[in-house]
Amino acid sequence: MKDIVEEIGRARRQVSVEGESATLLVRRRYDAEVEEVWDACTDAGRLARWLAPVSGDLRLGGRYQLEGNAGGEILACEPPSLLKVTWVYGGEGSSEVEVRLAEADGGTLFELRHAAVVPPGMWDRYGPGAVGVGWDLSLLGLAMHLAGEPQPDPESFGRSADGARFIAASGQAWGEAHRSSGADEEQAASAAKNTIAFYTP
């Protein structure tokens, strides 16, 4: 991977808002076969290498827990094309994450949709980047894993020069998706700035 910031441009981001419900969509292509990407997204040993260690009853209807992150129920599992789970972080509220995979030009089209009811104060302050930057970081990890490259240290990545550049580019990309959804220009810019600051202490 020549420049990790280039990974931001490999994805397309969309945001839709209806009342307090918001849906984020990120879509990108990986240079790996669908079965390989599916395995990386569903095998506990591989998930631990690019996302987080996972425990639980990892089958349809079972419950999972990502170490230090979200947990929930496995709502749909249709290998190698569809995985849908509830996503509960910090014991507050519930959202849903859906991953769809499809063959695309010898590789895999990866599509992640995250739908949630968002507290108005949080959305006003951080916008879609609060969750979107986290997903960009995760999908960077997946790209590096699929390419056989070592993962950055998550504890120090945001304080490194490359990490700060990546997070800034991700925050700006989600700010643009926020504006494209109809958000006020000033509000979207402020939310993107707050999100970048949150991720780069």
TrEMBL record:
This is SRPBCC family protein. Belongs to the AHA1 family. Gene3D superfamilies: 3.30.530.20. It comes from Nonomuraea roseola. Residues 31-144 form the Activator of Hsp90 ATPase homologue 1/2-like C-terminal domain.
